[in-house]
Amino acid sequence: MTEQSHFERDTRITSTGAGRWSTQLSAAWNIGTNPNGGYLILPVLRAMSSLVDQPDPITVTTHYLRPGLAGAEAEIRAELVKPGRLASNLRGSMHQDGKPRLESLVAFADLDTSTGPDVDITIPAPDIPPPDECIVRSGSDQGVELALLSRAEMRLHPDFANAGSLDEPVIDGWVRFSDRTEPSTLSLPFFADCCPPSIFATHGRVGWVPTLELTVHIRRRPAPGWLQVRNRTEDCQGGRIIETGCIWDSTGTLVAQMRQVGLLLDHE
Amino acid sequence: MTEQSHFERDTRITSTGAGRWSTQLSAAWNIGTNPNGGYLILPVLRAMSSLVDQPDPITVTTHYLRPGLAGAEAEIRAELVKPGRLASNLRGSMHQDGKPRLESLVAFADLDTSTGPDVDITIPAPDIPPPDECIVRSGSDQGVELALLSRAEMRLHPDFANAGSLDEPVIDGWVRFSDRTEPSTLSLPFFADCCPPSIFATHGRVGWVPTLELTVHIRRRPAPGWLQVRNRTEDCQGGRIIETGCIWDSTGTLVAQMRQVGLLLDHE
Fold it and tell me: Within a domain: residue A120?
């Protein structure tokens, strides 16, 4: 029997009845004292995945209602809203201490199938220095303890050494699981939300940026190896930030897109 | 008593019990025989709006499950998932003939309030010819009857006369309600999904592009007048299209962003 990966072990679910599962949230994916939002959605996707034949979550929207409680058990609820040939839609949520932590709306499909004419339009990967010429991300970049770095390795563009005085609110880098588990369509939503906020590039550590809503579109099955990420802050209004991002696999193929609303809050 | 606008009249809801409303779907917002997806979400937002104090839907995700039935009654269900000071999260759905037509996850906030430090990052409006130098959109552009044009006036960039042979999968234009009702944060989600598919710019009328999932972020309250729209097809995989868009008001201020997954289907 091979040893389980961090991803498998820390997102394991147990059925507790029709449409109900339990999971044990690990503290190893924390940013400060809270589990990373991308991690929280993984066991919910596992539960949903057990309800449909299609293997790939193609659109994953999550509303973060309250921080998850690290190291504690969580209840997952999931429901197939509509099964379909081209896509199946599901609804899910996570609860702890009787309170909903997140609410999610997801569609699964099979990325190996085609719905109609294929068209050659995509977003090419930007040219950035390779991982070993990038900066190893550490907790001190963000002023909080990043247990998360025990689970995901991150290399940031060398320019990020000057975060706070860069021209564009953009962050480029490379990410992978630290135990070298290869990325999959089920794990990509995590990588869409694991980098420091791109607004730090221009404005430095202006505040804490919890995610209110995150939508990840999975586009293709990733090849093994590092994932390349580019996130950009597009708009900020009254502290409400829109951040958009792309993930490419090690062959430079677009595998995911994300857009989220974050709240820029003063440091506590 | 002033006459009701199309928007008010065609999105009117009547409470039928706790968390339940009925609405009469108008056929005047049809594309071919189906109601436009952006229109369908409007009465659901009205129902949600009645459950919260915050006036502005700031993130609106909708999964389209089945076409709506034009000219028929629909049941709306909505539920406050979590009330909050900075944002309140709601879930909603629309049903006809006992079948769910759409499922939605929305957060409302007050765009007049601020959560933290404001930061000057936004997306400027592209420079395009004014509405009276643009092409009036007609049904023949798309090969289907567009009852929708009785409700929304659209002017497309003059370049769109060469749709099918343009270099970029981009559509620029201007939109407004045809009865001149001014846009509001409640009506913006409609304008995010009322233009022809931007893939037509490069590839012509390659197929029918129903929306699977649409997320609209409302950024600011729009000034009166025309809305400027730019939509771009960013990626296509197996007929699954990602289209991203922005809406600016008549002062050039970004008021909404959208991203959707559409399915490129062969013409029937």
Answer: no
A-interface mutation test, from B237, B243, B255, B261, most A Cβ less than 10 A away? B237
ipTM of the modeled complex: 0.97
Would you state the pLDDT for residue A144? 81
- Domain span at residue A13 reads 6-111+128-263
> Which residue of chain B is at minimal alpha-carbon distance from A256?
B235
User: Does residue A197 belong to any structural domain of this protein?
Assistant: yes
- Spell out which residues of chain A touch residue B115, defining contact as CB-CB under 8 Å: 238-240, 263-265
Q: DSSP for B49-79?
A: HTT-S--EEEEEEEEE-S---TTSEEEEEEE
Chain centre to alpha carbon of residue A156 = 17
Q: What is the pLDDT of residues B166-183, one digit of tens each?
A: 999 999 999 999 999 999
Between chains, do A115 and B238 touch, taking CB under 8 Å as contact? yes
Interface test with B, best of A111, A203, A212, A240 (most B CBs within 10 A): A240
Q: Are A62 and A103 spatial neighbours (Cβ–Cβ below 8 Å)?
A: yes
Q: Does B1 have pLDDT greater than 60? A: no
Residue in B103, B114, B259 nearest the CB of A89: B103
Instruction: Please say if the pLDDT value at position A46 is more than 90.
Output: yes
H/E stretch holding B44: helix B37-49
Number of domains within chain A: 1
> Cβ B257–A259 below 8 Å, yes or no?
yes
Asked if A107's CB is within 8 angstroms of B63's CB, the reply is yes
User: Which member of B111, B120, B242 has the closest CB to residue A238?
Assistant: B111
The answer as to whether B117 is a domain residue is no
Q: What is the CATH number of the domain that holds A87?
A: 2.40.160.210
Percent of chain A surpassing pLDDT 70: 97
pLDDT of residue B246: 98
The verdict on a CB contact (< 8 Å) between A242 and B257 is yes
- Distances B255 to A236, B42, B183, B246 between C-alpha atoms, Å: 11, 17, 10, 8
Could B63 and A235 be called an inter-chain contact, meaning their C-beta atoms sit closer than 8 Å?
A: no
Interchain proximity B238–A118, CB inside 8 Å:
yes
* pLDDT at residue B268, as a whole number: 54
User: Residues near B2 by Cβ (< 8 Å), separated by ≥ 6?
Assistant: none
CB B219 within 8 A of CB A242: yes
Residue A241 in domain: yes
In this complex, do A111 and B169 lie within 8 Å of one another by their Cβ atoms? no
* pLDDT mean over B229-241: 97
Distance CA(A215)–CA(A171), nearest Å, equals 18
